[in-house]
Every structure is written in structure tokens, then in C-alpha cells.
Amino acid sequence: MPIALARSFACLRCLVVAALAVQFAGCNTMNGGLNNNLGTSYYRQGNYTTAADEFQRAVANDPWNADYIHNLATAQKRQGNIAGAERTYRQAIEVDPGHQPSYHGLALLFKEQGRTNEASDLLQGWVDQQPYSAEPYIELAWLKREMGDIPGTEQLLQSALRIKPNDYVATAQLGQLYQDTNQPDLAIAMYRRSLHARWHQPEVQSRVAQLQRQYPNAGYAIARPVYTAPLSVQAQYGAPTTQSSSGFGPTTYIDPITVPPVAFGPSLQLGSPIADADPAHSTSGQISSDLPEVQPY
Question: Are 171 and 194 in contact, with CB atoms under 8 Å apart?
Fold first, then answer.
């Protein structure tokens, strides 16, 4: 066989092998998505063993998909396999060092076991590794609030908003914090700012309506300079009630919204994490942590 013809056959074989490899990889990815969907369905039915089996198949088909690994960890936790869930959450974080659902899942697991120092170290380490992202600050703020550290919670949420001024979760969390510390003006302003970034938040809308019924003039005083004691001071001396003396004029937000709103929560699609328990991606209508794990994003 002529050398040129032999080389042509060799090249053709290489192209065929490459095409088959791409096709095989694509099939694996598709199968992973199907396995993940099946696992999600079994999980919602409460069949955690079969769900874990399907998630394990999804990971085998697409081992670099942190969402599938996270889902496997969540099913393992439901099975009572705490050590396995911890290892799998860590595996997801190794695959994707910024995978927020896995950070929250692991921190929640630690907190439920009374290992709050480990949870704090985990989330503080994430803040240190990715100080340019708002999500780790929101997660650490959630943990601080769970531990009763109100000033620390406020500081971390404000740090998140300095990074991402239109983060709808950070503003809603801060609004809730101000509502709980009896500052309706600031609470309404933060809730409205959150709704400006993401309108479909029924719980936030409900909270705004509730506050406006309680304090008809709240929300307008923020258009003029108002001194509000830091929460660290209020925690020691008590939180004052701030109300406006005027009931007209446009509402001015505490900080100007200078960047387009961005909703970073994952949508319902193949590969989405099954849990909606994390404050940084909360879309189920609640603001606080510990939402039901079976609800989708």
C-alpha cells in the first residue's frame, strides 16, 4: 500500500476514534442528567436509597458535575450515612471550589451535629479563598445568625452587598435582620431593594405589606439622613423604633443601585441541586435558613 494512502487511512481512523469519543462523552453526560432526574424524583418520594443509587450512576456518568455529587451527598445524609455524606460534600467542593450548595450542605451537617467550630472554619475558609464573591459572605452570615451573632451577621451581609449591590438574597436577609431588631424603615428599604432585583419573592412581598400596615409612614424617612445605631450598640442597649414624620415623596434606597440586578440562583433544569435549604440561593418564599430539603431551586 502506498505510504500516502496508508497515512490517509491512519488519519481517517483517528477521526473516527475522536468522533466516537465525543459521542460517547455526550451520551455519558445525557445519561448523567437522566439519572439525576430519576434520583430527584425518588428523593421527593422519600425513597432515599434508590435516589442515592441513581445519583451514584449520575456521578459515574459525569464525575465532574458538582451538582450530581451534591445530590448524592444529600441523599446519603437522608439515609443516615453522615460520614459518607460528609466525604461526598467534600468531594463536590474539590470538584468545584465555589459550589455553594455543597458548602451550605456540609456546614448545615456540621451545625446539626454540634460541630459549629468546624462549620465556621469551613465557611470562613471559603470567604478567605473567594473574597470577591458575595455567596461565601451570605453563607457565613447565615451561620453567624444561627449562632446568635447579630452584629457579625450584619457586617457580613453588608460585605456581600459591597461586592454585589443588587444581591436579592443578601438584601432580603438584611431586611429581615432590621425587621427583627425593630427598624421598620431600614427593613422596608432593604426588602424593596431585594424586590427590585428579583420581584418574585412572595415572602418578601408579604413582609413589606405587613410592615406597611404596622408602620404606614415607614420607608420614606430614609430619603433624608437618619442616624441608626449599629446593631452592636442596639444589642447592648436595645433597638430603637424608627418611624418617619412624613408620608409622601418617593422612596430612596439606602444605597443607590448601580449595577444591573443579577439573579444567580440555579433554575429547574438537568443537574440542578435538589435542596433549597441554603440562604444564598433561597427562592422558595422563605428568607431564613433550613428550608425543606426536598424543595427544588
Answer: yes
Cβ neighbours of residue 110 closer than 8 Å, sequence gap 6 or more:
116, 118, 119, 122
What is the pTM assigned to this prediction? 0.70
End-to-end CA distance of the chain: give it in Å, rounded.
61
Query: Do residues 165 and 198 make contact, with C-beta atoms less than 8 angstroms apart?
Result: no
**222 — phi, psi (to 5°)?**
-75, -15
Cβ atoms of residues 191 and 172 within 8 Å: yes
**pLDDT of the residue at 118:** 98
The list of the chain residues with pLDDT below 70 reads: 1-29, 219-272, 275-297
